[in-house]
Amino acid sequence: MTELTHPLATVPRDQLVARAEADPHRPRFHFVSPAGWLNDPNGVSQWNGTYHLFYQYNPEGAFHHRILWGHATSPDLVNWTDQRVALVPSEGPDADGCWSGVMVDDGGTPTLVYSGRHGASELPCVAVGSPDLLSWTKAPENPVIPAPPAGVDITAYRDHCVWREGPRWRQLVGSGIRGRGGTAFLYESADLRRWDYIGPLFIGDASSGDPAATDWQGTMWECVDLFRAGGGALGDHMPAAGTDVGTDVLVFSAWHDGDTRHPLYWTGRYAGDSYSPRDLHRLDYGGRYFYAPQSFADGAGRRVMFGWLQEGRSEAAMVEAGWSGVMSLPRVATLDAGGDLAFAPVPEVALLRRDHVRIGPRAIAGCEVLSGVSGNQLDLELELELEPGSVFRLGVLGAGVTGSGANFGGGAAEETVIEVVRPAGQPAASAAVTSGDSCLRLDRSRSSLDPSVDADEKSGPVNLPGGRLHLRVLVDRSALEVFANGKPLTVRAYPTLGGEAVRLSADGTVRLLRLDAWRMEGVFGGPRPLFP
Ligand code: DQQ
């Protein structure tokens, strides 16, 4: 049965917004919920030119319980207006929560397909929107699929990807088959209400790889998202002569036994009723800090993706702060030359830039604190050239930093350090440089004096063609998004000293071709109603 008050609801509702707004760690130019809990992006879309972002929302407090669908709209993907809550649990299949889902255009009628939670089960439900997308009516047929596939021993069953293919709708529901691996079950329908089960689109292998590894597939796939990247449409195998057939990308969030691990994607080919995978990739080197992504094709044909930046602090700290969860900046996914995805924040993010500073070109010698560039709401864009056997470091959110010495070792009371390593190709002179792939690292070992926050290092490979690096770093208080030659690494950091210094350092030869820095404007004017 639905509880009226949750034991974690210790902050009175009328104090949640003020509590959240007072938190110095709360981002200002990322989308956050008015207060309380936010998790997955849902129903991301553009409708009559306006962008819509729905999200998993608990206005009762900063904990995951009895989830609603929050809703915000934007003309440009960066400035958001709260709209009234779209879905609220009610008697029936979603009595215990309106979990993740998508929005589709059903012949001019906005329609949500989501997971209704009742007790411990989640089943597909539908809701139909008014023409302005502000009022939603649940379909009397809910749940539109009455049970998971019979005779299959599943680990879980929820979340949806729905698309039109010819005269019919197709749907994937995320799941996992016990003893085998994660999967997505494929269904087909003429009307979004009656669904025929086709079968698993493709079954992963949970026994392959190390369960502790950053690319382990998990035992269940949450938030499956299938799309065509680089040409043509999903299910279209005969593009016009001279057009690229593209790659079919299957994104999922690897889950195991209640543990939200990391987002991954397959590249491969979707044809008929199945998916032939080619390669498995990590979607964001920050792992769980960019979880449950969902994407859509906007009017300009861009593949725009949002993800949920989970917190790196304790449940008690979140509850106390009165808010939890950040939506990523929207990022555009494209296919790179190697056939993998490359990501960049949507260009509209530039609308929030203020007070431009440019530095370079020049060599980086040793370690220096930048003058004229500091803050905790920053957009930094760097063009660099790294010689073999060099390391470039960029420190942000620094407090008590010094500019002396050859590198960052010590010299800061708090600092979050982004590092890009170009190996020498043979055993390198500097102990900091190892042979192997070029890589991006994020060192949080000195991010915070608070010992209770997560400080794990994050890293992953990057290509540095000819030593060239385009580095984009977005700092928004506790939210950090880094893009190194299109490879994203998203994390959270919780400095305690309010540091705003930015430092650069190099081991070996690194040329700074250009550094552009901006202070970023906040997108919300002040406190927002908990129930818009
Ligand atoms: N969160 C939702 C689920 C989804 C999970 C519930 C992923 O639908 O599987 O809030 O974070």
What would your notes on this structure say?
- By secondary structure, the protein is mainly β.
- The chain has two domains: 13-347, Glycosyl hydrolase domain, family 43 (Tachylectin-2, Chain A, 5 Propeller), CATH 2.115.10.20; 353-520, Jelly Rolls (Sandwich), CATH 2.60.120.
- It has two helices and 35 strands.
- Strands 23, 24, 26, 31, 32, 33 and 35 form a seven-stranded antiparallel β-sheet that branches. The chain has a six-stranded antiparallel β-sheet with strand order 25-34-27-28-29-30, with no helix packed on it. It has a five-stranded mixed β-sheet with strand order 4-3-2-1-19.
- A hairpin with a 2-residue loop joins strand 6 (109-118) and strand 7 (121-129).
- The protein is globular and about 70 Å long.
- The structure holds 2,5-dideoxy-2,5-imino-D-mannitol.
Topology:
Blueprint (H helix, E strand, L loop, with lengths): L12 H9 L14 E12 L2 E9 L9 E7 L6 E7 L9 E10 L2 E10 L2 E9 L6 E3 L15 E12 L2 E10 L3 E9 L5 E9 L16 E10 L17 E10 L2 E13 L2 E9 L8 E7 L5 E7 L5 H7 L1 E2 L1 E2 L3 E5 L5 E5 L7 E7 L2 E2 L3 E8 L2 E10 L3 E10 L14 E9 L16 E5 L14 E4 L6 E9 L2 E6 L2 E6 L8 E7 L2 E11 L12
Parallel strand pairs: 1-19
Antiparallel strand pairs: 1-2, 2-3, 3-4, 5-6, 6-7, 7-8, 9-10, 10-11, 11-12, 13-14, 14-15, 15-16, 17-18, 18-20, 18-21, 21-22, 23-35, 24-35, 25-34, 26-31, 26-35, 27-28, 27-34, 28-29, 29-30, 31-32, 32-33
The site of 2,5-dideoxy-2,5-imino-D-mannitol has 14 residues, from β1, β5, β9, β13 and β17.
